Q: What sequence folds into this?
């Protein structure tokens, strides 16, 4: 996204030359458009606060940053005054507040590198060796809360599959691949026909579609392969052209690549119909990685499968599985992955008749 479009979306950015320059640097470095958009939004909100408080962002200090943090922690949710996040005590979740602070901190890092400031008023938590109790981290401006990812209970998963069984074959194979290969939403929707290797039942997740720009090749199960074969035959009736794997079948966007938002709507519809409202496009990824941890996969193997650059994120699933606390639990769960695959296979046996989005 160009800086001109960003200025139109958030006019405050056009009033601060340094902010526009910083965003242009990130854009020139090839950051994903959605990343640039998120940075622009966070910085724009901070700059708007500066203007309201008559603060020059170039000379802002820690006290001014504290005012912004206070505003974030007391801001009501856009979903309504009655929506309250338990972890933040307000409408904005802890993770959202952390995300808003990231572009502000990076902006001041940029100003320091450019010689316009001597210090960063945002700062960051720092590890301090030798502190009492085996060292530790100095907390940042806002304590970071790390919560376990939500995964559905077994009956909830069965309810999801029961609803998904009536979906068109495209939606069923997308759900199966999302679980089987632990794909993120963008990775799934960006798959192309030449990313598939049916002979070896693997697919390539291209670097440009991943969160951390790491390409990987992941396998999928035989039942998912059967579903995929059926979908490819169906896809040929929509378009014989090679390219994006999943296509829209709506009248308005017929044979066009399926958008992220359309897939989100599909999953949301399934979740509500199954009465599992917390189920989202990312839940299948959480569920797969947790199941792999339950099966006893090693940390680095799960990290490679998931496309994690660092194992810190992967550890969440190890902890969630209970493996470190009860090896017996992991041994007892060795068949759970196969069971889920069998349940997914039943999706291919169900008749369809739902109109695709």
A:
């Amino acid at each position: 996204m160009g800086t001109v479009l960003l200025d139109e979306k958030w006019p405050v950015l056009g009033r601060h030359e340094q902010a526009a320059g910083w965003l242009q640097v990130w854009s020139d470095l090839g950051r994903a458009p959605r990343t640039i958009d998120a940075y622009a939004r966070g910085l724009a909100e901070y700059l708007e606060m500066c203007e309201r408080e008559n603060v020059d962002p170039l000379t802002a200090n820690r006290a001014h940053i504290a005012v912004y943090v206070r505003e974030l922690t007391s801001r009501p949710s856009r979903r309504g005054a009655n929506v309250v996040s338990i972890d933040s005590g307000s409408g904005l979740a802890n993770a959202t507040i952390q995300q808003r602070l990231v572009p502000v901190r990076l902006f001041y890092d940029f100003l320091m590198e450019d010689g316009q400031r001597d210090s960063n008023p945002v700062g960051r938590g720092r590890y301090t060796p030798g502190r009492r109790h085996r060292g530790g981290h100095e907390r940042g401006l806002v304590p970071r809360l790390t919560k376990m990812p939500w995964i559905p209970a077994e009956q909830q998963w069965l309810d999801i599959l029961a609803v998904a069984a009536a979906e068109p074959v495209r939606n069923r194979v997308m759900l199966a691949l999302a679980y089987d290969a632990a794909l993120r939403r963008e990775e799934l929707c960006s798959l192309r026909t030449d990313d598939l290797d049916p002979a070896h039942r693997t697919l390539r997740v291209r670097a440009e579609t991943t969160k951390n720009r790491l390409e990987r090749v992941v396998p999928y199960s035989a039942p998912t392969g059967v579903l995929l074969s059926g979908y490819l035959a169906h896809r040929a009736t929509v378009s014989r052209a090679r390219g994006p794997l999943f296509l829209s079948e709506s009248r308005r966007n017929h044979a066009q690549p399926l958008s992220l938002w359309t897939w989100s709507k599909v999953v949301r519809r399934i979740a509500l119909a199954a009465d599992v409202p917390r189920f989202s496009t990312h839940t299948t990824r959480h569920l797969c990685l947790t199941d792999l941890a339950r099966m006893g996969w090693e940390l680095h193997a799960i990290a490679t499968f998931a496309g994690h650059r660092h194992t810190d994120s992967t550890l969440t699933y190890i902890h969630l599985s209970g493996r470190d606390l009860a090896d017996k639990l992991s041994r007892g769960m060795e068949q759970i992955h196969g069971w889920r695959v069998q349940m997914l296979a039943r999706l291919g046996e169900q008749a369809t008749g739902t109109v695709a989005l």
User: Anything to note?
Assistant: The longest strand covers residues 202-205. The chain has two domains: 3-137, 154-349. The radius of gyration is 23 Å. DSSP finds 16 helices and five strands in the chain.
